[in-house]
Write a structure and sequence with these properties.
The structure holds 2 protein chains of 2 kinds.
Chain A lengths: L13 H5 L15 E7 L5 E7 L1 H4 L4 E6 H6 L26 E2 L5 E7 L2 H10 L1 E6 L25 E8 L1 H10 L2 E12 L8 E7 L4 E6 L4 H12 L7 E4 L16 H12 L3 E4 L2 H7 L3 E12 L5 E11 L28 E9 L14 H19 L3 H8 L8 E2 L5 E2 L4 H12 L1 H13 L3 E10 L7 H7 L7 E7 L5 E5 L8 H13 L6 E4 L17 H27 L7 E4 L4 E4 L2 E6 L1 H10 L12 E6 L8 E10 L6 E11 L6 H20 L31 E4 L17 H18 L13 H10 L5
Parallel strand pairs in A: 1-12, 10-11, 14-15, 20-21, 27-28
Antiparallel strand pairs in A: 1-5, 2-4, 2-6, 3-5, 7-15, 8-13, 9-10, 9-12, 13-14, 16-17, 18-26, 19-20, 19-25, 22-23, 23-24, 26-27
Helix pairs in contact in A: 9-18, 11-12, 14-15, 17-18
Chain B lengths: L2 E7 L2 E7 L5 H8 L18 E4 L2 E4 L12 E3 L12 H8 L9 H14 L5 H7 L11 H12 L3
Parallel strand pairs in B: 1-5
Antiparallel strand pairs in B: 1-2, 3-4, 3-5
Classes of the chains: A alpha+beta, B alpha+beta.
């Protein structure tokens, strides 16, 4: 055990942020820089019959105006989709449209001007005539006979159909079931809303033909690859992509966006540095959005409450185009999680990915897994009600026993480790579950609407074994690179392909490497987010940075240690087997005589002077590893939420929120708790306040933070966080992902609590978010409106 | 038409000719060159751009630069003293009160006013006081903790 892993080391990145010195893309400034602004479609579906840019182009301070045709003629390729399940139909997604817009916010024309204010004025001065076309916005409605077509060449609006599971076992389970519960529910569309709006900047060096692009991305290397191979056409060797400090992502900054192409293209075209910064309104109508499922499902069980089968059909709204990883989310990250934490032989799910005149939908925190968890956990509560069983007790009855791991589900995943019964028992203890239920009974007797929600949730994190990803439709691999470069003085630079946008990697990955080498954490710097400095990387999403990125660094550190040991043995004139590498101090010494050793710094220096190295050894002390995970990791959680619904205003008040999570070994407890707390509040947002909604004609009704209600500080009274640890057996750190578990569990925990509170009024289902209006309507519909 | 604006930013007198429509946040970022004041929305909802104007917390996207004429403005860059971090900055660091850091300058500037008004602010006071600031990362837990702790330590 080292000095740092497992301890709450304060974050090394914080001083710059708390002093206003964050290096965000919007802060990048060059002399002579132009400001790019984009004319966006106010129509959800229309033919463009005329674009007149002359007035804009004539404005004082406007440098250039471009239309879609300019980008097409200028060599820009369409945005590709990086995950294709069998027979996926992929609509063309141009950087800037030429003749037809497919959602509100589609890019129509581009202005470059001396100031952002002039650019905005010029955008207003561009005249566009639209001939409106019929629209479709609903995931399931898109497949209706006669529904308007989003793209004429895709004649049923279906991008793909996909299914997974043991259909035969599923049918048998329902044929033999004693009880069946059914549900039809919507997992509403969410808008990720990272606090930093997206931005891009670019500088072109005409002499060397080198382009540098700064972008608010969670994964700069894949963006460089896509820019190079598909959209911008500048060779990777001449293209540097930098994601400096990025102000939150939650998935929405994974994807390749048009503006990342527009800005460098403009910079090269006019020979001046260029920058675009989204307004919040633009972010709302162009950042890929999340969720948006319609699902019909049923759960089969025996009379003793043993789950035997789950049958699911989902319509997943993919929006107007396929965003970079869109088909992955409702397929391999959703259907695969439908077994939940339960032993169920007959799980079968099918999904239809449909196209609509809405902003593209892709990964948003949890990505597929929250959709599965909400569905499964609602069904379990309905089952408990049907059987007259306590929902916690029913979950414990069906939980996969700890001795059954690794556990093969009927939907492809092999769960690595877990102890779900202990997880639930810990949550019940921490919450005083029995006391909560007693208090609820008392409150009900007084006519109060008090509810308790319980969940047990699963996640698959740390994607992914590359070969598995490939077999499921990925166009890329999901390994990670990690380089440990020891300098001659013994200082260490760590280069990771993971990218931090709030997660604190500069601290946690330094903890890992400092412990691996036995050096002070102050001597380890972590470099990320720059294709010019980090050799390659797949970036950060799916809670993969510790599992995959951290493991790559462990492998490189092991190689450093082996070489240092070899040099040490040589200098100490001892056989390698007679010396040890002390991981507490970084010293190499002869076994039994620690005082006779050599310091890490001395050995690093020796590696670089190369005056006296073992025969045949190369000088230097620098190793790169590419770590391809053997499996996903499977974090789990049990959360308990206690709520009260006001019978006058129908507002939900959260009284307590108790979370117990198992994310395997923990590198930095403070950071992990922060991830879980933040994740929970996002999940509570889905349950209570957030919805990305469209009118039937495709207008985004939640186009600003006035209409899209992200949680505020007073939504919860506080969160009680605890954890258990079942280490992942297949990565060297024993870690599992920590970034998404909170979000996955919180939505069903709150929803179950609210529906439990409303049970005496005969309400069994309300679509999210559980706003006072929706609750009031449900109560009225149940005939119990007080 | 342009207007002359004279204001003090972090103790330094500044003078600019500006368009009447220029927002204070843009004046600070583009003219004064202080990019610590972040802009997170366009409807004055998120509070990322909060600064102190004559000692009061204001959302600088809701103030025209010309309205700041003759005012003293303090931004996040001006908060730390010669002897190091402001106690609220230190408390955010000590209590993990930030993740991506984008809302942080606005949170800290709002916290200055919360504790100014109510030095012994409770958890509930702080949650209420942060009603105009959005954080998407932390779930507010450690922001609240940071501010309460700074207040308890006498700011």
């Amino acid at each position: 055990m080292g000095r740092y892993v497992g301890t709450s080391v304060k974050r090394v990145e914080d001083p710059r942020f708390i002093q206003g010195k964050g290096r965000y893309v919007a802060n990048i400034q060059f002399p002579d820089m132009v400001h790019v602004a984009i004319k966006r479609s106010p129509e959800a579906h229309a033919r463009i019959t005329r674009i007149d840019t002359s007035a804009a182009a004539a404005m004082d301070g406007v440098v250039a105006v471009f239309t879609g045709q300019d980008f097409k003629d200028g060599g820009c390729g369409s945005l590709p989709c990086g995950w294709l399940v069998p027979d996926t139909k992929v609509p063309d997604r141009p950087i800037v449209v030429t003749d037809r817009v497919c959602h509100v916010g589609d890019s129509v024309a581009v202005v470059a001007a001396r100031t952002p204010y002039i650019a905005a004025d010029a955008v207003e001065a561009i005249e566009v005539d639209y001939e409106p076309l019929p629209t479709v916005v609903d995931a399931r409605g898109a497949m209706d006979e006669g529904a308007p077509l989003v793209h004429a060449e895709i004649d049923d609006n279906v991008s793909y159909h996909w299914a997974l599971g043991d259909q035969e076992a599923c049918e048998k389970a329902f044929a033999e079931a004693d009880e069946v519960v059914e549900v039809e529910l919507v997992n509403q569309r969410l808008i990720p809303t990272a606090m930093e709006p997206r931005a891009a900047a670019a500088q072109w060096d005409a002499a060397s033909e080198e382009m540098t692009v700064w972008t608010t991305s969670q994964n700069p290397h894949p963006i460089r690859l896509l820019l190079s191979a598909f959209t911008l056409g500048i060779p990777e060797s001449k293209l540097r992509v930098i994601s400096p400090d990025v102000g939150g992502g939650f998935g929405s900054k994974i994807f390749h966006y048009p503006e990342e192409v527009i800005v460098p293209w403009v910079a090269r075209e006019i020979g001046r540095p260029a920058r675009w910064v989204a307004t919040r309104t633009e972010s709302q109508m162009t950042d890929s959005q999340g969720r948006d499922h319609v699902t019909v499902a049923r759960l089969a069980m025996t009379s003793d409450g043993t789950f035997t089968g789950l049958d699911v059909e989902t319509w997943a709204n993919q929006g107007a185009y396929l965003s970079t990883f869109a088909p992955l989310i409702p397929t391999a990250l959703y259907i695969t999680l439908l077994s939940g934490n339960y032993k169920m032989p007959g799980v079968f799910g099918k999904v239809h990915g449909t196209l609509t005149n809405t902003v593209p939908v892709d990964a948003y925190r949890g990505a597929g897994r929250p959709e599965a968890a909400y569905l499964v956990e609602r069904l379990v509560d309905l089952a408990a009600t049907r059987l007259g069983r306590d929902p916690l007790e029913l979950r414990r009855h069906n939980a996969i026993p700890k001795d059954d791991f690794p556990y093969q589900t009927p939907v492809a995943f092999l769960y690595d480790s877990g102890d779900y019964d202990r997880l639930m028992a810990t949550a019940a203890d921490n919450a005083d579950y029995a006391g909560m239920r007693a208090a609820q009974a008392e409150a009900r007797a007084e006519g109060e609407l008090r509810g308790v929600g319980v969940v047990c949730c699963i996640e698959a994190s740390g994607p992914a074994p590359s070969a598995v990803a490939g077999s499921l439709g990925s166009a890329v691999g999901f390994w990670e690179s990690g380089e440990v470069r020891v300098h001659p003085t013994g200082q260490v630079s760590v280069f990771t392909g993971s990218h931090a946008h709030g997660q604190g990697h500069e601290t946690t990955l330094a903890q890992v490497v400092a412990d691996e080498l036995g050096v002070p954490i102050e001597s380890v710097e972590v470099v990320h987010g720059d294709t010019g400095r980090v050799n390659f990387g797949m970036g950060t999403y799916g809670s993969r940075s510790a599992c995959v990125g951290g493991s790559a660094l462990v492998r490189s550190a092991e190689k450093v240690r082996a070489k240092v040991l070899e040099i040490g043995a040589h200098l100490l004139e001892a056989a390698e087997e007679d010396v040890v590498y002390d991981r507490e101090t970084g010293r190499v010494h002869v076994k039994g005589s620690p005082e006779s050793g050599k310091d890490f710094g001395e050995l690093a220096f020796a590696a670089y002077t190369a005056h006296n190295l073992p025969e045949g050894m190369e000088p230097g002390l620098n190793f790169v590893s590419f770590y391809d995970p053997a499996n996903f990791t499977f974090p789990a959680s049990s959360h308990i939420c206690e709520v009260e619904v006001c019978p006058d205003t129908w507002e939900v008040r959260i009284l307590r929120y108790v979370a117990v999570d198992d994310v395997g070994k923990v590198i930095n407890p403070m950071i992990v708790e922060g991830q879980i707390q933040g994740g929970i509040v996002q999940g509570v947002g889905q349950a209570l306040t957030e919805i990305g909604s469209y009118s039937d004609d495709g207008q985004l009704l939640s186009g600003s933070l006035l209409e899209y209600a992200v949680p505020r500080a007073d939504l919860l009274p506080g969160i009680e966080v605890d954890r258990i640890e079942t280490p992942s057996p297949h990565n060297p750190l024993g870690v599992k992902g920590a970034g998404e578990m909170g979000t996955i569990a919180a939505t069903p925990a709150v929803a179950n609590a609210v529906l439990d509170a409303l049970a005496p009024l005969g309400v069994t289902h309300i679509e999210l978010p559980l706003t006072p209006e929706r609750i009031w309507r449900a109560v009225q519909a149940a005939g119990n409106g007080a | 038409m342009r207007h002359r604006v004279c204001l003090t930013v972090n103790g330094k007198a500044e003078e600019f000719d500006v368009e009447p429509r220029l927002l204070l946040c843009h004046l600070l970022r583009a003219y004064v060159g202080l990019t610590g004041t972040n802009i997170g929305c366009d409807t004055s909802q998120c509070g990322s751009c909060t600064v102190l104007m004559d000692g009061k917390a204001v959302k600088s996207c809701t103030v025209l630069a010309v309205q700041a004429d003759g005012c003293e403005v303090t931004t996040i860059e001006g908060l730390a003293g010669a002897d190091g971090l402001h106690p609220i900055q230190q408390s955010f660091w000590d209590n993990h009160g930030l993740q991506c850091g984008f809302c942080t300058p606005g949170m800290i500037m709002t916290a200055v006013e919360i504790l100014d008004r109510s030095p012994g602010a409770t958890d509930a006071d702080v949650r209420h006081g942060l009603e105009g600031n959005i954080c998407r990362c932390t779930g507010y837990e450690n922001i609240v903790k940071s501010i309460v702790a700074a207040g308890a330590r006498g700011n």
